[in-house]
Each structure stands twice: as C-alpha cells, then as structure tokens.
C-alpha cells in the first residue's frame, strides 16, 4: 500500500446505559482517597493504530470500519477516534 | 445425533464436552477446527468454553470472525442446533446469533462455583427432557458472564420466552442472592426466537457425572439425544 | 583485568572470576562473562545449596525421573506417570504482584509440559504480610494466578496462604504444577545426537528480564535500563497454544527433547539440555525471532521472555515440527544444532560471539559453604514461658481463631480459580488435599502443598519435618497414600550464618521425615535472599508439595461431617503443644515456644490407621488436625459439612492444659467421623495397630458444644469464618 502513514487514536467506552462495575469501583476508590468531587467514572479502552492511506479521509473511513467491525461492540460500547499524520518511525521500534 | 465441538485457539472446554459426548454418552463426536468451514455433517454444533484468542479486546470478539463461524451462522440460519457454552455464549452474542452481550462480573472477579438454574423452557431441543421449573445444579466459571441487553431487547426476550435458564436458589426461587455475576433478570441462558440457538454461561459438561458433584448437565445432552425434535443436518 | 563494576553487574565474585579465567586459560569476553554470570547464580547453579540438597532421598519405588530434569515423574499405574514440580516466583511478585504470580504459573507449567505431560492441576503456597497493609500483594497475586491459570485452562485445585509480619516486604509465591503422561511417552530434555536441530518455539524474544550489564547493550546511551521492562507480562493465551503444540510433538518420534526457557533464557536452557546429554551446541543468535530491534547477542542470550521452549529435532524432520507450530500460529525457528565438542558456541551470523565449555557453565561454579551458626537467642525463644497465663473463654477464642486471616475460609480465594476444569476434581479446594481422578481409570491423584514458617523460625529441623508430616496427613485425609515430594526452600541471605544454619537444619528435617516415610524428593527449587533491609529476612519457609495415589476413588473421604448421630473421634493423642501455635499468636499475640513435638513413627501409625479405615469404608469423614488444634479441626468439619457436634465435657489428665487440649497443635492427629455400626471395627483396628483414639462426641444439630466448656452457634461461626479474608 502506498500513501502516508496516519496515526488513529481510538477510544472505546461503555455506553451510558451499560452498567460499568469497573467504573463504579474506581469511583469508589477515588472517593475513598478523598476525591469527593468525583461524580462518575467510566472505564474504557484506548487503541492506537498506524495505517497507511492516500488521504486522511480514506484513513478515517477505514478506521471507522475497524471500530464497527471489531474494536467496539455496538451492543455495549461507543467509540470515537481522531486521525493525524503519524510522526516519523518511532525511536524505539516495538513491532 | 452427531455432535461437533468447535476448537478455537484458547478453547479449553472442548475436551470436557468431548468426554461427555464420547465417553459418558457414547454418542458420535467430531472436533471442528476454527480454520475449517466444513461442519462434517454434525447435527448439533457446540461452541465450548475457554478464552478463544485469549479473550483479548473483548470475549469472543476475534473468534466470531473465524472461518468456522461463517458455516455456523449458515447452519443456524437453516435451523441447525447451535449450543454456546460460556465462551461459546459470548461468541454467539458477538456474532449476533443471540441478542445482548456478556460484560464483566459485577464483583470484578472471576467466579468458579456451583450455581442452581431454574429451567423456564422445556420445549427446545436442548431442554426437552427437563421438567418445567426443574432446578439444575451446574457450575459456572467465568469473569465476564454478566448478561446485558438494552431495555427493548430485554423485554422482547421476556415476551417471547427466550430466557431458558435463570440463576436461582436451590429451591428454584429467582432471588438476587443467587445471581453470581450481576446478570440482568438473573439470566444464565437464552435461545434465539426460533429456539435452535442456545447460549448459556454455566458448564453442563462439568456436571455430567455424580462423582464430580452433579449429573444434572446430562439432562441437556440427553434432551438432544432423546428429544425426537426434528434436527437438521449440516 | 576486568573492572569491578562489570563483575558486580554480572554478580560474580572476584574469586569466581579467577576460577573462570583459570578454567578458560583466557579472559572471557563480555557475552561470555554475562553467560557465566547467570549460570553461576544461585538460581541456576545452586552453588550454596547443592551439597545440602544431595542429602535428600531422591530414589524410591516408582520413581521414573528424579531431580535434574525439568520436573520429577512417578509411576501411578495403568501406564500413567504423574509429573510435578514446585517453583518460587517471590521477587517478581514483590515488584508486580499480578504479573509476578502470573508468570510464575506460566513457568512451572512449561516445566511439566517439557516432560511431555499434560498439566492437570496447579497448586500455590503463598505468604504475605498482615492484612490490610498487604492487601495489595495478596489481591494482586491471587488475581495473577487466576488470570494465568484460568485462561490457559489448567485448574487450580489446592493451596495455602498465611499472613505474618516477616513477609510484608518479601511475599512468597510458590507455584506447583501436576501433569499426567503415558509412562512410555515421558520426554527428557537431553540434547542428544550431533547434527540434530535446535528449534526455538513460542513467543518472540524481547529485552525481558535482563538485569544490569548495561555494558553489554549495543547502544551505550543513557536509556538502556528504560528500554528493559522491569516487569514481565505473561501471555497465557500464547502458552495455551504452545501447550497444545507440544502435546502434538510428544507423539512424534523425531522430537528428541523439549526444554523450557526459564531463568537465564536461552543460555541456561541450551546449556542444561546439552549438559544432560554430554554433547555440545552451536547457535546463531541472528536466527532468533525478535520482538524488538537492535538487540545485542548478549540481550538475546540472556533474555527471559516468557512462553518460549527449546525443541531438539532429529535432523531432516524440522519441517514436521514447524508445521505443528504453524497450525497454532506460533514461531518455530531453527537456531542451531547439536554438536559433540562439549562447547556452547554462540554465533551472530558468521562471527563467533562466545565459546564456552558446557561443563564450565553448568558445573563450574565454585561451591560455596557459608558459615553456619544458630543465632544466640535461638535457645531463649524456645524457653519463653507463657504457660502461667490463664486460658480465656474457649468459645470466644474459637471464634477469634476461625475469624483470623490464617484460619478463615479460603473460599474468597479459590472461587476466583477455575478448579473444576477437566471434569476430574473429586475433592475440591477447601479440604485437606485435592483429589483428581485419572479419567478412564478408578485411580485418583491426591495433591497438597504445605509449610509452616513459624514452626521453622522456632526450630527449623522440627518445623521442616512437620511440613512433610502434615502434607502426608493431608493426602491421607482424602484416603490416598503419599507417593513423592517436591520442595521449595524459601530462605533469607545464606551468607548470614544463622540463615545458612536454618537452611541446613530444614534440609536435614525434610530428609529425615522423607526417609522415615519412604518418600523420594523428585524435584524442587531453592529461593534464597528473601530479605530486605527494612523488613529483615523471611521466616525459614520450606514448602512441601506432595502427590499421593488412591487406587479406587470410590473409597475417598473428605473433611465435612456427613450424618447426624455419627460418632466423632480424635485419632492420636494431645500434648502441651501450644508453642508456635495460632492460638498463641491470635489470642496472646506471641510467636514463641517450642514447636510441637514430632514423632515420625506415630505419624506413620495414625496414617496407616486412617488409610485402613478408609479402605474398609468405615469412615464418613476424615480431617487433619493442624493449625488451630483439635477444636479448630472439629469446627472445620462442622463448617464443611453444615452440621454441629455435641460432646460431653473434655477430660484432661495429668499436666495437660485445657486450652492446649482444645487449641494445641500436637501432631499425628486426625478428626474422623463414623456411623455407630463401624465403631466395633474401628476399635478393633485401633487396638491392632496400637493407635490411640478418643471418642469426642456425636455429630448433632447446629451448634458446637463441649458440655460446660464450649458452646458456639455454627451460623455465627460461619459468618466470622467467611469474612476473615474479605
């Protein structure tokens, strides 16, 4: 595939109606530490994807499809993401 | 009746299911590899428990895209019997063959313990020899068995009588204290509208001999063998 | 001459370096220095403990494989062999409890898999500081064991956990794995046959677990340490695939050997497999599949990345083996071959990076014999006088004991572990020992893991014997006959004379008890330096893993009382054994006194009695009498069976203290229950076998009653017991 490299930052969160036991527990933990101002906590996932695509629009479309197909389960989760031009290959490759 | 037991990478109840089918019941058994599309003429396809693909991302999320699942979906579409146990239930939900989803247990911990299930549907091929309201003692073993569906889906399930098993106390009363994972309406197992796809979190294959604590799971396997329900061959 | 910093980084002493140079007749290069450093570490070379470990009996009836392999193996009949080993993962668990425990489980599983056996059970022995301060360690370790074991699909069926101040900085995490294999398919990790190929399979290699030795990095920049993860993350899913692939290999005659990659990674794994065969090996680090770029030969050779195995394959059959791994989507790279020159040669492409004699690597570490001396206060601890204190209310003490973390219900732990997978668990966790059937037979394996650091702190020789005796009683309590032992020796810094003395005494204790019982020690592990500046050393904590056999599992028994009206008997006799007891700790806040006396002949006698009674079908329940004493044991039988007891006043004779009769921890005792019709036979059997027993009372109602002495409501007690660990 040719084109530029793009970095997509995907955030997957439980839908507002879905019970989030992890979030409730974290909220409780924060309050125990004295953060009384905590009203609600929702725990989700953060996913970074490097994709190659001609244009940003094309990259966005592909990432959107990835989210719908695999990264998020529409029954329980919402997703949102942003795409930006990826910086040069990382100093410490881990792939 | 020929049973097919699907093996995904990370599946671990395949051998326990196979033991019951082959050694306890003497029925016909085929293991179905996740990369194959051929269901080998099985009359009932079991998606067993385990951590398919490590349950990474979400339980069942990656397994549902296995080649074998395309055949399973077609088989179910034609009315074939599909039985998802534990991870298999999670895969069926991810695949959209059953409604809803299974999220993290409300205690945030894995739970392995005996549960009591009250059976509310005895007209399916999976429960034909079970008495209505019969209480079955069958263990659970999961970290994400907390059944969730949005309110319209949930009321549709209830209206159509799709809830087959609910967690109950030993007398069959559906009480909050008997709910091991926070499942809505104490749901332990559901069928699709047509009644040929069953998903359940508890493990009947671990309750098929008295020496390991219960033989109640055999009611389900026997139902499939004895029910006389017309079955479709893959 | 090498500089001091380098030697420190590879943890070699000046003397060891001199020995190395003299054996090589040259200076080692950096890679060679690093390889020798890890292989001469205590963990790999046992240089401090080796001489002591030779005192343990390792041969016996049915032993198919003793120490020296990945795990021990014992014949259990009908063509089956049981394979088992225990190993510590203490230090990693202190740094990151979840991943430390998880990778500990992953490691011990691979040891059993390497023998060609399918793992069927996991057990764990855990020690933490007191709750709630150590809740972080405790919760993380339990979740890590659950996370790995549940995902890979091997049931965790038994274990033990204790909480003591001395483990606050240094928690102990010992994991044991039990596997089954057809005896004729037992694999041994001997890299035989010059020209055969060495395959590295499983996970890719990264910079995991490489400590110090920053000089050996390719880039001499500042962030070397940053690039090396301090914590290893386990991948149980990958290991599940590795397990299934290895099970496929066991059937292939072209597979010569399977060897786990554990501590010191490729270096120790190749050296050990080659040393066992007396051959040599040549490997090319350039062929090692990597997770990261720019890794130096040093980093590749010393990486401790998890979920890897070394497979020795007959030349020409590499593709057959690679096909198996491909099925499971796993890497399988040919990285070198077996030679017959007695050397381990490491190449990077065409260049030789290291060349060392195998024997120097595996046997060359100069043995260390530290000074040994009991600490001065050892005698005074034993004689501390607590016996003048008046015993407080017995019922209240019972509730306090069963509500304490050391004696409370373990259900909050084991319900997080899948303990039923495999449909083989006949006696689940929560009793004395787990019992698993061997499917397709009437045989069952009993297994337990046990230790008492407090007894060993007070008297390591006696404490270690008690650990063996208690493990044997646990197996007996489910009706099984003990077969063999695996041990894990958790101690402080052996360079301190009192610690080395404890180690000597404990090993002698294990040897004495194992010889008396005819039990071989077929595998084991040593973990030293479990101490910190602020926390001091841990109690000397030898842990005994034991496996037993019940030939007909319909004869099994368990601890819970079964039927109203049954007679409740105590087998064995009570003495004034309050030293080191839970009662003394919980009720009086003291850790002192002489640990319970141990009489190995009496132990054998009571066990033979219980086994004979169980075989004859005379018992409805059997339970070992251990920590917390007779009343605690009786209460546990009540809690597990959901039934109370009604007993007349307990009579004490001579100088026996009343609280010692109830809570003393005298050894060689069981609590059993039996129907009235079995009583004459039991009495006759006891007479024949010269075993003392005492009729305590009857199973009855929902209270624990000793007339005029104890009266506790079972529901109330259960509440305290259930909440002890939550």
What can you tell me about this protein's structure?
The complex is a heterotrimer of chains A (95), B (234) and C (726). Chain A has helices spanning 21-32, 56-71; strands at residues 4-14, 45-53, 77-85. With 95 residues, chain A is an alpha+beta fold. Chain A has one domain (4-85): Mth169, Chain: A (2-Layer Sandwich). Chain A has a three-stranded antiparallel sheet with strand order 2-1-3, covered by helices on one side. The model of chain A is unreliable at 90-95 (pLDDT under 50). Chain B has a single domain (2-227), classed as 3-Layer(aba) Sandwich (Rossmann fold). Helix content of chain B is 21%, strand content 25%. Chain B contains five helices and eleven strands. Chain B has helices spanning 14-24, 67-77, 87-94, 151-159, 218-226; strands at 2-7, 28-33, 44-47, 81-85, 101-103, 111-119, 135-142, 146-148, 163-168, 187-191, 197-200. Chain B has a nine-stranded mixed sheet, sandwiched between helices. Chain B has a two-stranded antiparallel ribbon with strand order 5-8. In chain B, strand 10 (187-191) and strand 11 (197-200) form a beta hairpin. Chain B is globular and about 45 Å long. Chain C is globular and about 85 Å long. At the B-C interface, helix 1 and strand 6 of B face helix 8 and helix 10 of C.
Average pLDDT, all residues of chain B? 95
Largest sheet of chain B: 9 strands, mixed
Helix content of chain B: 10-25%
Shape summary of chain A: elongated
Low-confidence stretches of chain A: 90-95
Ranges of chain B where pLDDT stays below 50 over 5 or more residues in a row are 229-234
Sum up the overall morphology of chain B in one term: globular
Beta strands of chain A, count: 3
Helix proportion of residues of chain A, in percent? 25-40%
CATH architecture heading of chain B: 3-Layer(aba) Sandwich
Mean pLDDT of chain A: 86
Structural class by SSE content of chain A: alpha+beta
What's the CATH architecture of chain A? 2-Layer Sandwich
**CATH third-tier fold name of chain A:** Mth169, Chain: A
> Largest protein interface?
B-C, 31 and 33 residues
What is the element string of chain A, with H for helices and E for strands? EHEHE
The number of domains of chain B = 1
> In which order are the strands of the major sheet of chain B placed?
2-1-3-4-11-10-9-6-7
CATH class of chain B: Alpha Beta
Name the CATH superfamily classification of chain A.
Answer: Phosphoribosylformylglycinamidine synthase subunit PurS
């Amino acid at each position: 595939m040719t084109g530029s490299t793009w970095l997509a930052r995907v955030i997957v969160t439980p839908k507002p109606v879905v019970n989030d036991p992890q979030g409730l527990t974290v909220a409780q933990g924060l309050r125990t530490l004295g953060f009384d101002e905590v009203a609600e906590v929702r725990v989700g996932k953060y996913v970074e994807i490097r994709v190659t695509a001609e244009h940003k629009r094309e990259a966005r479309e592909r990432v959107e499809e990835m989210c719908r197909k695999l990264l998020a389960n529409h029954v329980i989760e919402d997703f949102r993401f942003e795409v930006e031009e990826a910086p040069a290959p990382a100093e410490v490759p881990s792939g | 009746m020929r049973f097919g037991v699907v093996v995904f990478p990370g599946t671990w109840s395949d051998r326990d299911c196979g033991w019951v089918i082959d050694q306890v019941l003497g029925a016909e058994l085929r293991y179905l590899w996740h990369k194959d599309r051929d269901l080998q003429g099985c009359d009932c396809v079991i998606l067993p428990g385990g951590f398919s693909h490590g349950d990474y991302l979400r339980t069942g999320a990656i397994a549902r895209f296995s080649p074998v699942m395309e055949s399973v979906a077609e088989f179910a579409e034609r009315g074939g019997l599909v039985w998802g146990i534990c991870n298999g239930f999670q895969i069926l939900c991810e695949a959209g063959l059953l409604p809803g989803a299974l999220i993290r247990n409300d205690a945030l911990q894995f739970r392995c313990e005996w549960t009591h299930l009250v059976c509310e549907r005895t007209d399916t091929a999976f429960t034909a020899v079970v008495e209505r309201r019969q209480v079955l003692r069958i263990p659970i073993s999961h970290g994400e068995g907390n059944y969730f569906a949005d309110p319209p889906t949930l009321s549709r399930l209830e209206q159509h009588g799709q809830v087959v098993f609910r967690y109950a106390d030993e007398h069959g009363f559906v009480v909050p204290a008997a709910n091991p994972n926070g499942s809505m309406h104490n749901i332990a197992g559901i069928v699709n509208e047509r009644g040929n796809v069953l998903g359940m979190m508890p493990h009947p294959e671990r309750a098929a001999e008295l020496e390991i604590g219960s033989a109640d799971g055999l009611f389900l396997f026997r139902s499939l063998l004895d029910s006389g329900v017309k079955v479709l061959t893959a | 001459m090498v500089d001091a910093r380098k030697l420190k980084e590879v943890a070699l002493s000046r003397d060891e370096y001199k020995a190395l140079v003299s054996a090589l007749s040259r200076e080692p290069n950096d890679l060679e220095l690093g390889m020798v450093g890890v292989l001469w570490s205590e963990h790999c070379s046992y240089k401090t403990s080796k001489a002591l470990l030779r005192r343990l009996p390792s041969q016996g009836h049915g032993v198919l494989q003793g120490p020296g392999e990945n795990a021990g193996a014992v014949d259990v009949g009908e063509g089956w062999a049981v394979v088992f080993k225990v190993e510590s993962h203490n230090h990693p668990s202190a740094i990151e409890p979840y991943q430390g425990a998880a990778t500990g489980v992953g490691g011990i599983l691979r040891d059993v898999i390497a023998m060609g056996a399918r793992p069927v059970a996991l057990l764990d022995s855990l020690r933490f500081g007191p709750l709630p301060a150590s809740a972080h360690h405790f919760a993380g370790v339990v979740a890590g064991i659950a996370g790995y074991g549940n995902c890979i699909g091997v049931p965790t069926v038994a274990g033990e956990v204790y909480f003591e101040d001395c483990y606050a900085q240094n928690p102990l995490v010992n994991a044991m794995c039990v596997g089954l294999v057809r005896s004729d398919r037992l694999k041994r990790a001997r890299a035989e046959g010059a020209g055969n190929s060495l395959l590295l399979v499983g996970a890719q290699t990264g910079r995991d677990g490489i400590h110090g030795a920053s000089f050996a990095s390719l880039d001499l920049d500042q962030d070397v340490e940053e690039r090396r993860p301090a914590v290893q993350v386990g991948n149980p899913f990958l290991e599940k695939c590795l397990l299934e692939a290895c099970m496929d290999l066991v059937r292939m005659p072209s597979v010569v050997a399977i060897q786990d990659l554990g501590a010191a990674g490729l270096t120790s794994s190749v050296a050990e497999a080659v040393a066992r065969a007396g051959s040599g090996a040549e490997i090319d680090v350039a062929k090692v599949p990597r997770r990261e770029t720019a890794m130096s030969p040093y980093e590749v050779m010393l990486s401790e990345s998890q979920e890897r195995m070394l497979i020795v394959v007959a030349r020409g059959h590499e593709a057959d083996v690679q096909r198996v791994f491909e099925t499971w989507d796993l890497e399988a790279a040919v990285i070198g071959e077996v030679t017959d020159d007695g050397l381990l040669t490491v190449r990077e492409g065409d260049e030789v990076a290291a060349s060392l004699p195998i024997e120097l690597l595996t046997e060359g570490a100069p043995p260390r014999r530290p000074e040994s001396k009991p600490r001065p206060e050892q005698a005074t601890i034993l004689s501390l006088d607590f016996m003048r204190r008046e015993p407080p209310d017995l019922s209240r003490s019972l509730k306090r004991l069963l509500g304490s973390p050391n004696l409370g219900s373990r259900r909050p732990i084991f319900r997080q572990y899948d303990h039923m997978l495999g449909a083989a668990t006949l006696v689940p966790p929560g009793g004395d020992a787990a019992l698993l059937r061997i499917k397709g037979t009437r045989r069952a394996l009993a297994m337990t893991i046990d230790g008492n650091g407090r007894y060993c702190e007070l008297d390591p020789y006696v404490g270690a014997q008690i650990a063996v005796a208690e493990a044997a009683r646990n197996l007996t309590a489910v009706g099984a006959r003990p077969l063999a032992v695996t041990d894990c020796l958790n101690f402080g810094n052996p360079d301190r004379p009192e610690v080395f003395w404890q180690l000597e005494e404990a090993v002698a204790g294990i040897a004495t008890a194992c010889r008396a019982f005819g039990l071989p020690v077929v595998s084991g592990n040593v973990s030293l330096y479990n101490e910190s500046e602020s926390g001091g050393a841990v109690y000397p904590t030898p842990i005994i893993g034991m496996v037993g056999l019940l030939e007909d599992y319909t004869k099994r028994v368990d601890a819970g009382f079964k039927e109203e009206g049954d007679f409740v008997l105590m087998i064995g006799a009570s003495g004034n054994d309050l030293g080191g007891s839970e009662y003394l700790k919980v009720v009086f806040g003291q850790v002192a006194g002489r640990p319970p006396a141990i009489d190995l002949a009496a132990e054998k006698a009571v066990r033979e009695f219980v086994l004979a009674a169980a075989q004859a079908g005379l018992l409805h329940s059997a339970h070992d009498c251990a920590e917390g004493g007779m009343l605690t044991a009786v209460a546990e039988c009540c809690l597990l069976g959901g039934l109370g007891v009604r007993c007349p006043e307990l009579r004490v004779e001579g100088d026996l203290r009343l609280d010692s009769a109830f809570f003393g921890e005298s050894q060689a005792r069981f609590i059993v229950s039996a129907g009235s019709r079995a009583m004459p036979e039991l009495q006759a059997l006891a007479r024949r076998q010269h075993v003392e027993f005492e009729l305590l009372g009857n199973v009855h109602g929902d209270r624990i009653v000793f007339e005029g002495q104890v009266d506790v409501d079972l529901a109330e007690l259960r509440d305290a017991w259930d909440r002890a660990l939550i």
